[in-house]
Recover the amino acids of this structure.
């Protein structure tokens, strides 16, 4: 009697499984369909069009749109402005990655150590990330102002400089100052990622290391660094991709000036100012592949996860 | 004992340096926005406004205002319009993005359908596509659909830009929820949809709040997209309007900083009251 009930229940459960499996498929398709439509229409379709158009000459000033193969890409290689913009972007990436990683790690260690007021310190650290980049850039533009800016004022009153500087006259300084505004905004992200990594390290490890006679530097290099390497990789790839896509800060602080022009501003100039649409598109394709390559760390991680579950 | 005191002093100094670095520029913008124009161009910077004035705010929010004795036109008509545009597009983008991500991420985690993994990887990989790669074809598409300078057009572009991060975040939230809960509900005869809306979504609320915050802040701060797709005040947001104060008349830093301070009030409110969710979102959004 009892066993009969159990078997009939199992049978009905099996029937249920079969039923839900099939309805699952349609439910899954229904749930994901809007996403596929939105992303397909507004992202993937346009990307394919860009790829295709970058192989043509599309130029509102000239008639016809002939197929020209990789001519746009070949021209990009010898365009002095484009090369200059790539160098600027490389400089931004170098400045941003170094400052964000070192600063973010320092902030994360401090946040992890501090016991009082941690919630408020964390809120203060995160704040710059939450603000509109344009507003940040405007605030810093005023700080960098050559005649009345805070930077000149502080440096002069502490005696570090004799007279006021026009900061954007020197290319290296200008690049550093634009990068600094970007770092101010993006450092919170590195700090938060690294804080999460630090919090996952069990405290006993440090106690054991101390009992074994390891000093703070030794336990940092032997315990902390290896155990946060995953977080570090993510923080590094994030800061690289974001510095690669720097636009707002350079645009507001120094307009289209060649000294500070990153590749994305170069794309904007080629496409919308010089009206060489397909030429700008070809450059944006290169930026996309470079970004994708850098975030491969990220994408591979997703791939691994989706494979094993 | 001495060492721990020294240690604590060191921590305190580091904390103060970090506070100055993070909040200093915001404080400076506030001081600038409250300073009289004559004090802004004085020889040395003042760390506290010598003569507190609301002149710049009056110019933004008042019907008319006076500037150095003479009456000038207030920018309230443009400012209020842009404020409404910013709020509307950001809220609409948030609602649509979180709605799509809440349902879609569930399907990516729990339901089996053809192409599931490929679609998910493609959508997440699109995080690395710079906005300018799609800008020109997207512009032509929007012209074709007559969606340039419309709330619907701008909102949908925001959704396509911010959906991948929300999906990624919601997926990790669903993955962390125990499967046994759903199985129990299902044993009791509840269907998939019922289980999702009545049992799973309430449990996933912190994740939903986190992705709502991330989406709202990204949309609120967006500049490149509305620069192209919102040419007039019909949909132009604050982020595009404020830099235009540079070209109007002359560079009025007091006015720009005052406008900037008003534009950062919503993000500040979020950071003050919802920072827990924001930090969780940033941590989970970056792969935990």
């Amino acid at each position: 009697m009892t066993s009969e009930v159990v078997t009939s229940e199992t049978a009905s459960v099996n029937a249920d499984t079969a039923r839900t499996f099939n309805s699952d498929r349609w439910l899954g398709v229904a749930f994901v369909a809007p996403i596929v439509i939105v992303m397909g229409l507004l992202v993937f379709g346009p990307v394919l069009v860009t790829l295709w158009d970058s192989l043509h000459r599309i130029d509102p000033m000239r008639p016809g749109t002939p197929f020209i193969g990789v001519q746009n890409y070949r021209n990009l290689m010898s365009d002095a402005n484009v090369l200059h913009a790539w160098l600027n972007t490389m400089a931004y990436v170098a400045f941003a990655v170094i400052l964000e990683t070192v600063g973010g790690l320092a902030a994360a260690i401090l946040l992890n150590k501090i016991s009082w007021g941690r919630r408020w310190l964390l809120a203060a650290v995160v704040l710059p990330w939450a603000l509109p980049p344009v507003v940040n850039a405007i605030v810093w533009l005023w700080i960098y102002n050559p005649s009345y800016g805070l930077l000149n004022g502080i440096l002069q009153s502490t005696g570090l400089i004799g007279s006021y500087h026009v900061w954007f006259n020197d290319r290296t300084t200008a690049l550093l100052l634009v990068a600094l505004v970007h770092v101010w905004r993006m450092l919170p992200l590195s700090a938060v990622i690294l804080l999460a990594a630090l919090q996952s390290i069990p405290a006993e490890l440090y106690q054991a290391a101390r009992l074994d006679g390891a000093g703070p530097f030794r336990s940092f290099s032997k315990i902390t660094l290896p155990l946060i390497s995953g977080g570090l990789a993510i923080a590094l790839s994030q800061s690289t991709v974001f510095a690669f896509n720097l636009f707002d800060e350079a645009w507001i602080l120094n307009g289209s000036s060649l000294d500070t022009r990153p590749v994305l501003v170069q794309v904007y100039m080629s496409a919308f100012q010089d009206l060489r649409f397909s030429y700008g598109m070809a450059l944006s394709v290169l930026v996309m592949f470079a970004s994708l390559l850098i975030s491969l760390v990220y994408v591979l991680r997703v791939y691994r996860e989706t494979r094993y579950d | 004992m001495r060492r721990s005191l020294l240690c604590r002093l060191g921590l305190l100094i580091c904390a103060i340096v970090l506070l100055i670095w993070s909040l200093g520029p915001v404080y400076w913008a506030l001081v600038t926005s409250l300073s009289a124009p004559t004090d802004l161009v004085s020889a040395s910077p003042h760390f506290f406004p010598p003569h507190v004035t609301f002149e710049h705010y009056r110019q933004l929010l008042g019907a008319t205002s006076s500037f150095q004795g003479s009456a000038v036109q207030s920018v309230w008509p443009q400012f209020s319009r842009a404020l409404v545009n910013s709020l509307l597009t950001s809220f609409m983008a948030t609602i649509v993005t979180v709605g799509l991500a809440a349902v879609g991420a569930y399907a990516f985690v729990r339901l089996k359908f053809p192409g599931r993994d490929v679609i998910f990887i493609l959508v997440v990989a699109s995080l690395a596509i710079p906005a300018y790669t799609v800008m020109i074809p997207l512009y032509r598409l929007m012209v074709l659909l007559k969606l340039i300078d419309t709330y619907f057009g701008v909102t949908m572009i925001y959704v396509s830009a911010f959906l991948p991060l929300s999906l990624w975040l919601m997926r990790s939230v669903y993955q962390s929820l125990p499967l046994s809960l759903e199985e129990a509900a299902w044993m009791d005869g509840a269907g998939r949809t019922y289980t999702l809306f009545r049992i799973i979504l309430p449990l996933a609320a912190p994740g939903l709040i986190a992705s709502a915050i991330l989406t709202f802040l990204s949309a609120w701060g967006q500049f490149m997209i509305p620069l192209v797709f919102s040419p007039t005040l019909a949909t132009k947001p604050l982020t595009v309007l404020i830099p235009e104060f540079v070209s109007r008349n002359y560079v009025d830093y007091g006015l720009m900083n005052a406008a900037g301070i008003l534009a950062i009030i919503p993000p500040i409110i979020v950071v003050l009251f919802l920072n827990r969710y924001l930090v969780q979102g940033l941590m989970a959004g970056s792969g935990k």
Chain B touches chain A through 93 residues (CB under 8 Å). Strands of chain B lie at 64-67, 70-73.
